[in-house]
Amino acid sequence: MFLGELEKQVLQYLWTSPGVDVKRVHAELSKQRDSSLNTVQSALERLFKKGLLRREKQGHAYLYFAQIERGDLIAKLIDSVASDFVSKGESSLVAAFSSVSSEMDEAQLDKLEILIERQRKQLQKGITSADK
Amino acid sequence: MLISDAAVIMNLITIALLGFLVSALLLSVAWRLIGKYVDSYSIQSQKLLILTWVLSPWILGLMTMLFFSPLFENTAIYRWVDSVAHWHHLYVFQLDSWHGVTIILFSLFSLALIVIRGAGLYRQGNALLTLNHFSNNVHGSKSYPGVQIIDSNIPTAFTSGFFRPICYVSKGLIDNLTDSEFNIVVKHELAHARNKDPLSKLLIAFLSAYYPRKLAQHFNAKFALVTEYIADQSTATAHAAEDVAAALVKVARLQKAFPQRQSNTSRSYFGSHDITHRVQQLLTPTKKSMPVIVPIAFMSVMLCLTIFAVDATHHLVESIFTHS
Lengths: 132, 324
Known about the structure:
Radius of gyration of chain A: 26 Å
Distance between the termini of chain A: 64 Å
CATH class of the largest domain in chain A: Mainly Alpha
Helix content of chain A: 55-70%
Strand content of chain B: 5-15%
CATH topology of the largest domain in chain A: Arc Repressor Mutant, subunit A
CATH superfamily of the largest domain in chain A: Winged helix-like DNA-binding domain superfamily/Winged helix DNA-binding domain
Structural class of chain B: mainly alpha
Strand content of chain A: 5-15%
Number of domains of chain A: 2
Low-confidence stretches of chain B: 262-273
Oligomer: heterodimer
CATH architecture of the largest domain in chain A: Orthogonal Bundle
């Protein structure tokens, strides 16, 4: 998923003010940046095509709503940062660590915890016997 | 058909490529034989070995080319090499021969590799920029210089960026950790940033792509694990190794408890990577170090084998395909 600067600002605005038309979006964004109504319109169009917005027709204009929650978008971004680390097809690194974490079960984690505790106790013993 | 200077250059490139391919093949076989013993050596030795393996085809290819080149024509070593292995048509090069095809295929493969990886990196860069954009105004209860807090309930921590790496930790992780555990996670990620691990992983991914796919994946996974060991180790200087290990297990538990998303990619370099190995390495570090002379001696043997093999391959192929 690729997002341009203006698209990010549009999304950010629509999360706080859902159900607005292009004029409102343009009026709000022109406080921060200098972009024409047409530019804002095409940014809305792009976001709509990417499935990130939905729209409802009211009179002659469309009202826009964010289709994706902020938290979900961030989760998607986190995923794509991790999976693009090595490009797809050769996604060796990602394959390696995701398979390990999904194979890892509670019992294995319990075992590791016991191992750590045992070592801690041994060290403690070592320290107290050295003190004596 | 090319004759003289241009032909020499093209022939030398072919020799370098043949040397490259032959040594990659020899090194693949060698790793199959000795790869399983690598784990018993210290982390630094493991890192050195992986680097040696992925860099060697390039170095051996270039050295083979030098040995065959007319640059050292008057030296004793050239005469010795010439007596056992030689390129019988250094001054004549035919583009539409298997030599030309080798060069073209290699160039196309490299170009495709750069384009595919470049596109992936571009997408990733944009995802990071967007992540920064939506995380800029987050003020968590804990903060740490050099660490970007992500406004998400997914428990995650990772380091990304090639030249100026940035560490990211999510609120979802921070809220579930004690101060000391948070400190361990951050120290671990900052160690990745300091070591420029994303960049070195990228280089290893690029260099290993010329090996058979399974081996390449093995090298990448192994190198990734070594970078984790090193980051764990530098965290364990300020904290007890047992505390680092316990934090690792805790993060793994948090991530397991979080509902899996469809894409099923892992969310943390800290926590999800070969946890068992990392805990064992923290509790009982492998200390046996490999003398530097071993890889050097090994590579010298490889060089001799490559030189002979290049000559042999050349004669073998040319007895099947003739140039004209």
